[in-house]
Design a protein that fits this description.
heterodimer, A: 248 residues, alpha/beta, Rossmann fold, 6-stranded antiparallel sheet, 5-stranded parallel sheet, 11 strands, 32% strand, globular, B: mainly beta, 5-stranded antiparallel sheet, 3-stranded antiparallel sheet, 10% helix
Amino acid sequence: MARTAVRGRLSWQIATVDGVVVETARVRTIVLGVSEWLGHRAGKHLDVRLTAEDGYRAEREYSIASAPGEPVAITVERLGDGEVSPYLTDELRAGHEIEVRGPIGGHFVWDVDHGGPLLLVAGGSGIVPLRSMLRHRRRSESDVPVRLLYSSRAIEEVIYRAELDDRAAGVEVVYTLTREQPPGWAGHARRVDDALLEEVAWPADEAHPPLAFVCGPTSFVETVASGLVSLGYPPARVKTERFGATGR
Amino acid sequence: MEPLDGNAIGGLLLEVFGVEMTSAKGVCAYCGAAGELATLVVYLQAPGTVVRCRGCGNVLVVIVDRRGVKCVDLRGVAALDRAD
């Protein structure tokens, strides 16, 4: 009995790759079949563990890209010097198996009844947990107003672009392309700064303060979070998640 | 290497404590700052995992893996509390 309880709590299990979706040149979404999945909330993670033939193990935490109720999926960006991500993006095929555990987390999550208005701010692959929230909102037929400010280096690096550009989703999406812009680009073309936040973010209405989720590289998150607080967002309404090219 | 935050060790904390801990509140024993563990500063590249206070920078938690056993040092935590 005790063993069953512990296993239900958090244990490694085998997931089967059900499909791999090419998102950009360096980014893949991996759809997983997990037999004992307890269900997740939008914004949660899972851990992936790879074991080499010599027994060496590497673990990484990835945000879940799919909405609650959808098949579990992660979206992985290939890091040039990564131990894990190149295998996941380049080698994995449908039918392969990897070890996972999850769902993990409880701070950076959004449920429909948390309401809004929602401000989502993503840097690069920081869009992944926010995409889970957007899909959750849509599947729940929620009418919570949403603005997404999404910073990428170039238009080719925008993940989920077709999905985000689907007007039917009822989400205001503002892109900024920091390094390279296509010919005729009329959108923003600089890193997110206080002025851009002031232009895009919901006003900090004291009676109905917006709820912000910020995900990206550490320096990006620091800039955005402090910018939102200086615009009057209550710090407790600015949820942050920093990622980096690190493992343990 | 830039530090991350407590979200990055959600799995490790779950493994150590047996319950979801990123939304638990920790109180810094040095400066008294309180915040969800998800908001704390986390270094993964140190020998082991080091968690620091975002307010004063002092070390709150160190978790080291010794031959498969997780050694947890909560030296800088005055209180740790889950809402539920």
